[in-house]
Every structure is written in structure tokens, then in C-alpha cells.
Design goal:
By secondary structure, the protein is mainly alpha-helical. The protein is built from nine helices and nine strands. The chain has a three-stranded antiparallel beta sheet, with no helix packed on it. A two-stranded antiparallel sheet has the order 4-5.
Length: about 350
């Protein structure tokens, strides 16, 4: 793993509070997913991949008949190897803005001073990275740097996902899902075949020396380990439960990103859009007509001006920045008694 790292540096763990962040006088930016500290989700991800690989290639694929065995090795092995490659690339790539990558990562990132600037990025200039950034860049608080085409910060990669590594991230999710599907089909076949015709699972030549039908050999053909049937089913159940859970989570993630691709949105833009719609919901309810009474004219509350969907992203950010004015400020006095509307 060390070959994938370049000038790794210790940074503030993202689970620390604001007080700990403020106490640090020299915060540094992360380079990629190998920069310490490693996230616990990243360790879990590699552990699951290792368990699935050992179970698939060391235990269950050797149970298959000879013709199926070679096909399973090729198909499943190609998916697992491809996933490993694109996953390593997604973790290793530095997704930062080009101007951020041109700077020296050894220099500490300055502390943001709200008395001088209202926001971290203003007019496409980041006051923390002190560089000009692109329009869709965002300063990630976990990596402490501006990420080009920011999509989200992935804890499983321990790295930000941006325009530079989004394709590898998507390929990693898709290949992991394909490999798990192959493994689940393989496990189901072994379960069914064990009750129908278990002899078809004992075609390896080493089974000629095994007299008991309840004894199975693991890690064929290099290191045969004899175990009883309950042990095999215990391992199969654990792998099946772990694989099914991972399959559901990865399937949901893949479908979600396919939806984002169809809508030409990033994960961050989708979240800002959803937050904007939540803030607009009370305003829309106030715009409904009031109930009428006999002999009295119907009163209406003016509906807010509709906002084009293309403005959701920028409008949501503007609403987030301006939603908490100071008490007694000119904006609060000016808007008192008016119908809540978004200032675009």
C-alpha cells in the first residue's frame, strides 16, 4: 500500500469536535485516501473484500464441476481483480483543484476568519486554500482542501469523490456489485446441489481418498483442509449474509448514482436541491387560498415566484447563507411582515 502514497501527512480526524479543530494551529490538507488517519469504514471495506476473495476462490469455487470451475475462476476472478484495480485508483487519485495540487501540501491551511469573509468560497476564490477554483468546486472539511467537481466525501475510500476520480468510483461500485452477484449465484447453486446430488460437488481427484461423505476439503487443490459438513454450512451462511447485505447496499448506491447521471446532478447538488425544497415547502403552504364564507369575498395570499429547477443548486446555497440574519439587522427589519420569498 505504501507505493500508493505520496507525501502522506497527519491531519485532524473528521470525528473531532469544533473545539479540537480550533485548537489546532496548523491544519494540513489530505492528499488522498492513504493519508492518515485511516477511516474505520475503509478497514471494514478491505476486510470484507479479503473475506469474500478467500471464500470464493479458496472454498466454494473448488466445489464446482470441472467445466463450471474454470468459467467461475475466469468470470469471478476478472470482476474481483477489476474491482481491486479501480478501487486502488479511486483511493490514490488526488481529487483536489488543479491550483490546490500545484501548491505545496506541506504548508498549513489558514484558519477561516468569518470577521473578514462571509463564506469560504466567494467569487470562485477559496479563502482557505488561497487559490482560484472552478465553479463546481467545494472545500471539503474532512480533507481540508477544495475538490474539483465535488460529488461527496466517501468514507469507504477515505477520500473525496470529484471529477478526477468519479469514473473510477462508479466502476468500483459496479464491479463490486457484479462480483457479489456471481458469488451469491455460486453459493445458492452449492446449497441446492448439496441436497439434490452432493456427488457433483466432490469431483476433485483428492476426494478419492476421503471415505466419509460428511467430510469436505477446503482450499483445493493446493492446501486441502478436511472439515465436516456443519463447518462448511456455517462458513456459507456467514458469507451469504455478509454478501446479501453488501449486495443490497451497493445496489442502492449504484441505482442512486445512475439516477444522478440521468439528472446531470452530483450528490452534493442533489442534497442542496432537497434542502432547498424543504425550505420552500412552508412558503408554498402559505400561498394556498383561504376558505370562503357566505357573503364575504375570498381572500388569497400571494403565491411566491416559481423558481426554475436549474437554479436549485445556486439558490439553495444562497438560501443557506442568508437564512440566519443577525437580530436587529437591516435585512430582518426590512423583511418583517412580508411573505417569505427567496431572494435570487
Amino acid at each position: 500500500m505504501g507505493i500508493c502514497c505520496k507525501s502522506q501527512r497527519q491531519v485532524i480526524p473528521e470525528n473531532l469536535g469544533n473545539s479540537a479543530r480550533k485548537a489546532s494551529l496548523h491544519p494540513l490538507s489530505r492528499v488522498n485516501g492513504w493519508s492518515p488517519p485511516l477511516h474505520s469504514f475503509q478497514v471494514v471495506c478491505w476486510t470484507i473484500f479479503l473475506v469474500m476473495s478467500v471464500a470464493a476462490f479458496g472454498i466454494f469455487i473448488p466445489f464446482l464441476p470441472r467445466d463450471w470451475k474454470h468459467a467461475a475462476y475466469i468470470v469471478t476472478g476478472s470482476l474481483f481483480l477489476f474491482h481491486l484495480l479501480v478501487h486502488l485508483i479511486a483511493v490514490t487519485i488526488d481529487p483536489a483543484e488543479v491550483n490546490v495540487r500545484l501548491k505545496s501540501y506541506a504548508q498549513p491551511v489558514p484558519t477561516f476568519d468569518r470577521s473578514k469573509h462571509a463564506h469560504v468560497i466567494q467569487n470562485q476564490y477559496c479563502h482557505l486554500c488561497e487559490v482560484t477554483v472552478s465553479e463546481r468546486a467545494k472545500h471539503c472539511s474532512s480533507c481540508n482542501k477544495c475538490v474539483a467537481g465535488f460529488d461527496h466525501h466517501c468514507k469507504w475510500l477515505n477520500n473525496c469523490v470529484g471529477s478526477r476520480n468519479y469514473g473510477f468510483f462508479f466502476a468500483s461500485v459496479a464491479s463490486a456489485l457484479g462480483g457479489l452477484l456471481c458469488l451469491m449465484v455460486l453459493l445458492l447453486y452449492i446449497v441446492v446441489q448439496h441436497f439434490i446430488s452432493p456427488d457433483k460437488l466432490r469431483t476433485d481427484p483428492l476426494y478419492k481418498d476421503v471415505r466419509s461423505s460428511s467430510t469436505w476439503l477446503l482450499f483445493l487443490p493446493l492446501w486441502p483442509v478436511p472439515v465436516k459438513t456443519p463447518v462448511v454450512f456455517l462458513i456459507l451462511t456467514v458469507v451469504l449474509l455478509l454478501g446479501s447485505t453488501s449486495l443490497v447496499l451497493l445496489g442502492h448506491l449504484l441505482v442512486f448514482h445512475l439516477y444522478l447521471m440521468a439528472k446531470h446532478l452530483s450528490t452534493f447538488e442533489y442534497m442542496m436541491q432537497a434542502r432547498f425544497q424543504q425550505k420552500q415547502a412552508p412558503t408554498r403552504r402559505e400561498g394556498l387560498p383561504l376558505p370562503t364564507e357566505k357573503g364575504r369575498p375570498q381572500r388569497h395570499v400571494v403565491l411566491p415566484t416559481p423558481v426554475h429547477p436549474a437554479l436549485f443548486y445556486k439558490a439553495a446555497i444562497h438560501l443557506q447563507r442568508s437564512s440566519s440574519p443577525k437580530v436587529g439587522s437591516p435585512r430582518r427589519r426590512r423583511c418583517a411582515g412580508e411573505t417569505p420569498q427567496l431572494c435570487l
